[in-house]
Amino acid sequence: VSRFESITMAPPDPILGVSEAFRADTHEMKLNLGVGAYRTEELRPYVLSVVKKAENLMLERGEFKEYLPIEGLAAFNKATAELLLGADNPIIKQQRIATVQGLSGTGSLRLAAALIERYFPGAKVLISSPTWGNHKNIFNDARVPWSEYRYYDPKTVGLDFDGMISDIKAAPEGSFILLHGCAHNPTGIDPTPEQWEVIADVIQEKNHIPFFDVAYQGFASGSLDADASSVRLFAARGMELLVAQSYSKNLGLYAERIGAINVVCSSADAAARVKSQLKRIARPMYSNPPIHGARIVANVVGDPALFNEWKEEMELMAGRIKSVRQKLYDSICAKDKSEKDWSYILKQIGMFSFTGLNRAQSDNMTDKWHVYMTKDGRISLAGLSAAKCEYLADAIIDSFY
Ligand SMILES: Cc1ncc(COP(=O)(O)O)c(CN[C@@](C)(CC(=O)O)C(=O)O)c1O
Predict the structure, then answer these.
(1) Ligand 1 pocket test: which of 80, 179, 248, 373 has the largest number of ligand atoms within 8 Å of its C-beta?
(2) What separation in Å is there between the alpha carbon of 216 and the centre of ligand 1?
(3) Less crowded by CB within 10 Å, the N or C end of the chain?
(4) Would the ipTM clear 0.90, i.e. be above it?
(5) What's the pTM value of the predicted model, to 2 decimals?
(6) Residue range 274-302: average pLDDT?
(7) Taken in order 90, 95, 96, 99, is the CA torsion positive or negative?
């Protein structure tokens, strides 16, 4: 008998497992609205032209493949902090930000979780209800206790702002509050600027530590600056905060695993100490990060022409998602004879739509219509083409009633 007898079969991942099921389906109308990965109108993966140009540049230069420092590529770390806060942000000149390249957003969140576990024993992380499915796994595996703050209100299909604020207020002083910088996953519902001010007030009042997950900067609205406004608001107040970043979506570097963890501290000395301990955590975890994606980001941001072209492509991607969102809404309204108000689909931001379909209804979408989505009712509009909106509207209406 095997020595691994005690190892049981793990369940498929709630998000990435959907793509596995999709690949196994042979139906010709099948549609993958599971993982948040941008597809063109032809439903094909999209490699940004600036990425191809940057890679051609890199090939011509014939760059080395030696180890990066534990903290990653310096040019990338500089560029990513400037993208986040704005190049002229005084925090950068004062060297009050510790930036370490991470294995994309997931790896950056994990580094931060390990820092919390090691230096804030007993501290809790508060996560939104609902949130991205992998957040709980990351904190569980890092042995960081977490609890939820109310966020989504099924009655209004909107933000339960009062519930959110009272749960953050009720948390033990000095808790970490995990916030989606923009394009909340899975609800697509973001606080308004006024609500962000109140969230910052209550976090300061309770001496909590804000912890932003910024996985969609520039991809939600099409503007890098607009999508970073929540983080910049907190930073402008002089708050210390953590920010995990990802270039999976906004630069289409999904499988290159490029992101960063940033810790804004009240002094350069604190930032240096924090950075040194993040390195001490990373070394035994994966030693040092992959170079390719870091070089692409550094080359795109470092070249004014490429940087501008990137901004155009982000607007193009965000624009396609916005128009497919509108088309889906129009298709549903044209077909649905009931009085149901579907306008929440239009109000949502980013690549997802939280349809309000429950588990059984989501199952019907897959079993009967071969539409693949996560069981919490989330669909990725990034995987939807205008041509498929009619079909999807039929599936949603059939499943809803
Ligand atoms: C809020 C949030 N944070 C972090 C990540 C991590 O992405 P990265 O590690 O590739 O940088 C995702 C990706 N969420 C996706 C798009 C994919 C996934 O589940 O991994 C999703 O479908 O929700 C995310 O939605």
Answers:
(1) 248
(2) 9
(3) N
(4) yes
(5) 0.97
(6) 98
(7) positive
